[in-house]
Design a protein that fits this description.
Helices cover 52% and strands 17% of the residues. It is an alpha+beta fold and 380 residues long. The chain has three domains: 116 residues, Butyryl-Coa Dehydrogenase, subunit A, domain 1, CATH 1.10.540; 94 residues, Butyryl-CoA Dehydrogenase, subunit A, domain 2, CATH 2.40.110; 151 residues, Up-down Bundle (Butyryl-CoA Dehydrogenase, subunit A, domain 3). A hairpin with a 2-residue loop joins strand 2 and strand 3. It is globular, with a radius of gyration of 21 Å.
Length: 380
């Protein structure tokens, strides 16, 4: 693959880093946290600035208010948000929702939703996990949530779990099993569902209950002839890749904090970065952070350049492993070399630690991921 960015992609990266870095300072993040918004921390000023700069519509076509760039360009915005642990829902709104609607929506669905996302007026998310009894399960293969024909539309019933920005979203993409077989993704108004806050390590998620929610026929993403399984596979794959990009930013920032601190902190008259154990620890963290960044870049490039979603499945799985497993090692190493400062919540490192933990939980365990990669290799 080509790891270099095109001129347009580099411009997107530079602009996103500048806007997010200038706005999402540690002081601003602390201010947002202390506001204790019941829907979770959200930087409305930064969201508006991203919209004004055209970054919320970076992968939305020009006809719907966007820039019409590819998934690699979109991933630059996501990674920039990870660099500051910014409180903006770039993964759920720009990737899980807007990217999916852009590629699979009908002309009417694109007209209705994409301009509002590009302008910053609408926050959207996707709900793929489900609450079944007391267990949270993957609801992408055969969702327990059902969609039953009702008049000229559908009636949806079920409970989705761990929905990112679920309490704030104006629009939710809801995969549901269709009566008589099949799968569909429905575009559901946030006001028509019941939400309950679920605490996460870095930011809250939501339990979303659909109790006989009525939706019109035109809310079935892509229309009645679309293969819902293909849509869900694509949504999950690209959202997973975006989470890896977010972790690439977080791991890079955590490593940088560790390097800066150990280069300044003195013990026994020497900078502690010169101590062999400290240097080795940060050296290992550097390898992990680079592996996260490069495997993420490879996955994004394949998604952007290959025609079929399955062409990138192994690359995304490898990036997922490094983000979930390597990310934890990076933030733990950064915390350890800081000593007591590393666990001080007045110091910015804790945000990367908590965000990394939340990303790991969202991606799933590394062992299961490796087993799936091995099985595909064995079957090849």
């Amino acid at each position: 693959m080509d790891f270099s960015l095109s001129e347009e992609q580099q411009a997107v990266r530079d602009l996103a880093i500048q806007i997010i870095g200038d706005a999402s300072t540690p002081e601003r993040l602390t201010e947002i946290e202390r506001a204790q918004d019941p829907k979770g921390p959200f930087d409305a000023l930064l969201w508006a600035a991203l919209a004004e700069a055209g970054l919320l519509g970076i992968a939305i076509d020009e006809a719907h208010g966007g820039q019409g760039l590819d998934f690699v360009a979109l991933s630059q915005v996501v990674e920039a948000a990870g660099l500051t642990a910014a409180y903006v829902p770039v993964v759920e709104t720009l990737v899980a929702a807007a990217d999916t609607i852009s590629r699979h929506g009908t002309a009417e669905q694109k007209d209705a939703w994409l301009p509002r996302i590009a302008s910053g007026d609408l926050i959207a998310t996707a709900a793929t996990a489900e609450l079944v009894g007391e267990a949270i399960v993957d609801g992408t293969l055969k969702p327990v949530t059902t969609a039953t024909p009702s008049g000229d539309g559908w009636t949806l019933s079920g409970t989705k779990a761990c929905v990112a920005s679920g309490e704030r979203a104006d629009l939710l993409l809801i995969p549901a099993s269709l009566a008589g077989g099949g799968l569909g993704i429905f575009l559901v108004d946030g006001a028509s569902v019941t939400t309950e806050r679920q605490e996460g390590p870095a930011r809250p998620e939501a339990l979303v209950t659909l109790d006989n929610v009525k939706v019109a026929a035109d809310r079935l993403l892509g229309g009645s002839t679309t293969d819902g399984y293909v849509l869900v596979d694509s949504l999950v794959l690209r959202t997973t890749a975006a989470l890896c990009s977010l972790e690439a930013g977080a791991a890079t920032a955590a490593l940088k904090l560790g390097a800066e601190y150990t280069s300044e902190r003195e013990q026994f008259g020497k900078k502690i970065a010169t101590f062999q154990a400290v240097g080795q620890r940060l050296g290992d963290a550097y390898v992990d952070a680079e592996a996260i960044r490069l495997t993420s870049a490879q996955a994004n490039w394949l998604i952007a350049t290959r025609e079929h979603v399955l062409d990138a499945i192994d690359a995304v799985a490898i990036a997922k492993f490094w983000a979930a497993d390597g990310g934890q090692r990076v933030v733990h190493a950064a915390t350890h070399v800081h000593g007591g400062v590393g666990v001080d919540r007045e110091y910015p490192l804790h945000r990367y630690f908590l965000l990394t933990r939340q990303i790991e939980l969202s991606l799933g365990g590394a062992t299961r991921n490796l087993l799936e990669i091995g099985q595909r290799m064995a079957n090849a």
